[in-house]
From TrEMBL:
Residues 41-93 form the Inhibitor I9 domain. The lineage of its organism: Eukaryota, Viridiplantae, Streptophyta, Embryophyta, Tracheophyta. It comes from the Eukaryota. InterPro entries: S8pro/Inhibitor_I9. This is Inhibitor I9 domain-containing protein.
Amino acid sequence: MESTKSESYFVFMNYDPEYQRLLNDRTKRGAHELDLYLSTKHDEVLRSTLEPGSYKKTCSFVIVDGFAVEITEDQANVLRSAKEVRVVEKNEEFPECIA
């Protein structure tokens, strides 16, 4: 049975030498190029694996080459099989601890 409830997931990418090169460029231009590169790369992975309009990318994470996306459990499983993807984890929010 297909899941239909969208939830937040974190997606972390496999090693990418271009990401590493851009990450090491500490200039303002380098930071801009890295942001643009990752946003485009993450959007392309989503476009090539999931149905258009069936997901919502909420942000890209520059420090770890990853992104957050609202998808179903079935879509998370599809992303897990993409060659560029290392890990897909559900965003587990924990209730506040009461001391």
